């Protein structure tokens, strides 16, 4: 059984595994209100593009369900609209948030009847979004096996495993599946500054799965590649533009440039729900900038003087020219993505 970072309570509210506490504590939080849901997104208690989409859908149901079910049709739709817009704006870079919320909106608007029927339909839609992502992850892991071979050494950045999705994961899912099949992959885990999604989350998942891995400071990736210790780079995506430019966790661009320099293939791994057909190229992707304290005082420990300005983008954009290919649930693709 793979881990899932969210669950329904029997009453129909949402539980999330608080990823800010990993790897030292495994604590679940119940999400009762829109404020709590937005706080969970903003604090990265739940994170990773596909998981954001699924949590957006489940969270929308969880936070409107009581009031909407008791409301007449127009009132229920208004409640859905209000919550949906706030959720879609919670994090600007991962397109999955807007993708999931728009799908929920369409389902609400297309459902006949009063509030109770709309809430029931939304719950079905959220379950479908989760189930589809699970199948999508499985298909990505399968297509990705074409890149695997016994003992392969993979460098990854951020966390793209079960914690970031509704299934086995995307980039990490490929490696986890290879491990299940006895290929004994080895993973180099970029710690992923400033919030350590690599060392806190990816390493935790790999340890649970019994996959060989080593954590490294992001700054050591260059030396690692120069030493010829990496066969393949696999990373996720928060948004893929029509021309193939990829927004992903900050630091991905550096890894991509290094991989090109040292002749190592670099693949972006993502479901097609992370592809944004409305976005022509990476210059049009909004990059989230985060609080200075994450850099200047990580975990409350001050490492830069009070008063020094901080630059803290959460994502960067890797140009399509640096990407060897895109592993999706439909196979390994190459731009332009006209379909
Ligand atoms: O800020 P985060 O932790 O949500 O950033 C996550 C990433 O950048 C992942 O690589 C991406 O969302 C893909 S997750 C399968």
Write a brief caption for the model.
With 339 residues, the chain is of the alpha/beta class. The protein has helices spanning 34-42, 49-69, 73-88, 95-109, 115-144, 171-180, 197-209, 221-226, 252-261, 293-296; strands at residues 6-8, 14-17, 28-31, 153-156, 186-190, 212-216, 232-235, 239-240, 246-249, 266-269, 315-318, 325-328, 331-333.
Counting DSSP H or I runs of 4 or more residues, the number of helices is: 10
Number of strands: 13
Largest β sheet strand count, sense and barrel closure: 7 strands, mixed
**Given this structure, which CATH class of the largest domain is correct?**
Alpha Beta
The chain-level structural class is alpha/beta
Rg over CA atoms, rounded to whole Å, is: 20 Å
How far apart are the termini? 34 Å
Describe what this molecule looks like in 3D.
By secondary structure, this protein is an alpha/beta fold. It contains ten helices and 13 strands. Helix 2 packs antiparallel against helix 3, helix 2 runs parallel beside helix 4 (95-109) and helix 5 (115-144) packs across helix 6. Helices cover 40% and strands 15% of the residues. The longest helix has 30 residues, at 115-144. The chain has a seven-stranded mixed beta sheet, with helices on both faces. Residues 44, 47-50, 94, 158, 160, 164-165, 170, 197, 236-238, 248-249, 314 line the site of 5-S-methyl-1-O-phosphono-5-thio-D-ribulose.
């Amino acid at each position: 059984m793979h881990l899932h970072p969210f669950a329904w309570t029997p009453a129909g509210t949402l539980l999330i595994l608080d990823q800010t506490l990993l790897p030292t504590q495994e604590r679940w939080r119940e999400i009762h209100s829109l404020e709590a849901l937005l706080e969970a997104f903003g604090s990265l208690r739940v994170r990773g593009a596909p998981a954001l989409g699924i949590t957006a859908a489940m969270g929308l149901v969880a936070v409107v369900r009581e009031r909407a079910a008791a409301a007449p049709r127009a009132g229920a739709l208004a409640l859905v609209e209000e919550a949906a817009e706030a959720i879609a704006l919670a994090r600007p870079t991962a397109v999955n948030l807007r993708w999931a919320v728009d799908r929920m909106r369409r389902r609400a608007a297309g459902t006949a009847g009063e509030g109770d029927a709309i809430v029931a339909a939304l719950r079905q839609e959220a379950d479908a979004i989760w189930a589809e992502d699970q199948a999508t992850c499985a298909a990505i892991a399968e297509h990705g096996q074409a890149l695997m071979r016994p003992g392969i050494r993979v460098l990854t950045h951020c966390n793209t495993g079960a914690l970031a999705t509704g299934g086995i994961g995307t980039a990490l899912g490929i490696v986890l599946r290879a491990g299940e099949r006895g290929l004994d992959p080895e993973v180099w885990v970029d710690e992923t500054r400033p919030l350590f999604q690599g060392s806190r989350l990816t390493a935790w998942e790999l340890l649970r799965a019994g996959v060989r891995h080593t954590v490294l400071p992001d700054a050591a990736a260059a030396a690692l590649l120069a030493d010829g210790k990496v066969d393949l780079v696999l990373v996720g995506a928060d948004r893929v533009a029509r021309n193939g430019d990829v927004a992903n966790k900050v630091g991905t661009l550096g890894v991509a440039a290094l991989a090109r320099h040292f002749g190592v293939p670099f693949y972006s791994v993502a479901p097609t729900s992370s592809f944004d057909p409305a976005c022509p190229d990476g210059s049009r992707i909004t990059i989230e900038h985060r609080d200075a304290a994450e850099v200047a005082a990580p975990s409350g420990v001050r490492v830069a003087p009070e008063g020094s300005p901080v630059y803290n983008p959460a994502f960067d954009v890797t140009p399509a020219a640096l990407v060897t290919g895109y592993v999706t649930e439909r196979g390994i693709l190459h731009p332009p993505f006209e379909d």
